[in-house]
């Protein structure tokens, strides 16, 4: 089987797994009604009131620095309604929140003078993505792609080994946890690449992604996140 055929088969399997996970989530919600992660209202994972509140959170662009990134910025601090929305997107089956959160990223990108050739989401390990049903960074990237007309290549980076959750680890432990965890699977020679993720804390994951991209020949690497912690 050639590489292109394998890629199509992989995407088909991933789509099938996502549909299966969605069906499982629907059945669980039927038996155990969900509650809004923003306010606790029953029968929804994220209610209209919290969505309206999320849309009023100001975009406060914060420029950060990381060794291998030519630019890194976030749209707000990881607190309040933004933090609740990201946690709901990641852990409570609310993929539609990628739309307002992705719009924040697009607005931030429009303020930058960055020249971007392609977008890549921070990848999840395959087993973790299958369990969650989707990669939240990819959903955010899709929204930025739709608003900016910059092509997103979700398979450009792959996480070739499972890593521990970064939450609760020290800065040095975070760096070691994601060191050499990513592979570049598509030619990026002389390209300017934008990495997208939901939140940045120490920047270890983004830096590891950037290291892989630059080692594969990328010209410049930037990164955008919804929040910084």
Runs in which pLDDT lies below 50 for 5 or more consecutive residues are 1-11
Rounded to an integer, what's the Rg over CA atoms?
Answer: 17 Å
Strand content: 15-25%
Enumerate how many helices there are, as a single number.
8
DSSP strand tally = 7
Strand order of the largest sheet: 1-2-7-6-3
Shape: globular
CATH C-level = Alpha Beta
Helical content (DSSP H or I, runs of 4+): 40-55%
Please write the string of helix (H) and strand (E) elements. HHEEHHEHHEHEEHE
| Oligomeric status | single chain
Q: What is the makeup of the main sheet?
A: 5 strands, mixed
CATH topology (fold) name: Rossmann fold
* Category from helices, strands and their pairing: alpha/beta
**CATH architectural designation:** 3-Layer(aba) Sandwich
Average of per-residue pLDDT values: 86
Number of domains: 1
Describe the structure.
45% of the residues lie in helices and 15% in strands. The chain has one domain: 3-Layer(aba) Sandwich (Rossmann fold), CATH 3.40.50. The chain starts with a helix and ends with a strand. A five-stranded mixed sheet has the order 1-2-7-6-3, sandwiched between helices. A two-stranded antiparallel sheet has the order 4-5. Residues 1-11 have low confidence and may be disordered. The chain has helices spanning 3-31, 48-55, 80-91, 98-110, 126-132, 136-148, 171-178, 204-215, and strands spanning 62-64, 71-74, 118-121, 157-159, 182-184, 192-200, 220-228. It is of the alpha/beta class and 229 residues long. It has eight helices and seven strands. A hairpin with a 6-residue loop joins strand 1 and strand 2 (71-74). The longest helix has 29 residues, at 3-31.
